[in-house]
From TrEMBL:
Species this chain originates from: Canna indica
Record GO terms (molecular function): aspartic-type endopeptidase activity
Domain Peptidase A1: 107-444
Gene3D superfamilies: Acid Proteases
InterPro entries recorded: Aspartic_peptidase_A1 (IPR001461), PEPTIDASE_A1 (IPR033121), Peptidase_aspartic_dom_sf (IPR021109), TAXi_C (IPR032799), TAXi_N (IPR032861)
Record protein name field: Peptidase A1 domain-containing protein
Signal peptide limits: 1-23
Similarity field: Belongs to the peptidase A1 family.
Amino acid sequence: MAAHLLPLLPLLISLSHFALNAAAAGASRCAIPPDGGSTIRILHAFGPCSPLRQAAPFESWEDTVMDLMTRDESRLVYLASLAAAGAGARASVPIAPGRQLLQIPNYVVRAAVGTPAQSMLVALDTSSDAAWIPCAGCAGCPPAAASFDPSHSTTYRSLPCGAPQCAQVPNPTCPPGAGAACAFNLTYGGSSVQAGLAQDALALASEVVPAYTFGCMQKVTGNSVPPQGLLGLGRGPLSFLSQTKSLYASTFSYCLPSFKSLNFSGSLRLGPAGQPQTIKTTPLLSSARRASLYYVNLTGIKVGRRLLDIPASAFAFDPATGAGTVIDSGTMFTRLVAPAYTALRDEFRRRVKAAGPVTSLGGFDTCYSGGAVTPPAITFMFTGMNVTLPPENVLIHSTAGSTTCLAMAAAPDNVNSVLNVFANMQQQNHRVLFDVPNARIGFAREACTI
Ligand SMILES: *[C@@H]1O[C@H](CO)[C@@H](O)[C@H](O)[C@H]1NC(C)=O
Ligand SMILES: *[C@@H]1O[C@H](CO)[C@@H](O)[C@H](O)[C@H]1NC(C)=O
Ligand SMILES: *[C@@H]1O[C@H](CO)[C@@H](O)[C@H](O)[C@H]1NC(C)=O
Ligand SMILES: *[C@@H]1O[C@H](CO)[C@@H](O)[C@H](O)[C@H]1NC(C)=O
């Protein structure tokens, strides 16, 4: 393991102290009040208030540091695979793409599944339509997971092969014979997952969705499957948005808590009611090639007051190829295609020259050890909306080693078309509004604790 990773270790160790102390000290701090109305508490998957904290895959701190970036790498591969998967534009989006899936998502909410309700954690993913839940008796599911027991639900039913939803999942297995249950398998990193397609009542907030379609996980091989379920908030037919259209009108917003927040809790707000009335917005764009994703038109980047010289091709939206810029809840650090990232990084380095020589740390190429770094404001300019990020959205710190890094990176150049990803660290402590009926994405600063 490279020695240059060591400075970030104290940050992770202190995070782990939160986790270890949480069971005792956190009992009161983490006494999470019930979710109210259509507002749902969002937890960081590894934060002190998350029941998953012991399940965090912290084999070693070095591995975890590497994971931060390697997870994002596989996330980018996943996002790119959305375009590669369909030879032509598909009318239906698979419940999960058959190949490389996504890395362990960062934010979870509680869901009530079945009748009577069983409480499950599900990860939020705006770039996927999947919903899957570890089911009782699942062979090889991660042990930390609470599993859903269909036999204790009076409203559970498995979907037959003839159901239209069965045509939307990858590799469906349909044994001959009438009324066979629809099963499918998919791969997730190095793991493979076998699931049955099912329906049951599901509620995030007070409203119950009577027959929500999801994959009931029955068998897992390998160990890269996250210990919780997953809820896709993408735009395809099987996503939460599509399945709850009559309830929530394809509208939601979230406020993602900072990694540094002791409370580690933000909120997911469903439906048009209660959304901010005054919020800056930019048009929401769609690509048939990557139909699940939330595209926006990034038009420029400013560092301080300086507009960077970036070729328009780095930002150009092309619905046919899926090139452009997406807002994603599952990628941790914003990725920009090489010419855009290089321009941003170079100007950033010029501005913080006084902080000393540039070093690298893990996947970050612009880090400083020792001196305090006062970053310039970074403004992402979208059509009709400028988002100026404060330092907390721009820098990632390691505490004891006092190393500070620019928390963004270049997009891997092996993806098959230009894709910029505006990721969750840059969205933290903002309310981000996804308003599909009005085709807009909104941003407003907000302290994300409830
Ligand atoms: C997929 O499912 C089929 C039938 O259930 C099974 O034979 C096959 O081994 C599975 N593949 C994987 C990779 O799990
Ligand atoms: C935690 O949340 C409470 C309100 O719920 C707030 O008063 C407090 O400042 C928060 N603490 C931190 C460290 O964010
Ligand atoms: C994106 O913004 C650029 C620059 O303002 C503009 O030329 C282009 O038409 C916009 N694209 C879309 C899809 O709105
Ligand atoms: C965004 O910033 C640019 C450059 O400062 C400015 O010209 C533009 O009017 C701003 N757009 C909005 C919507 O405020």
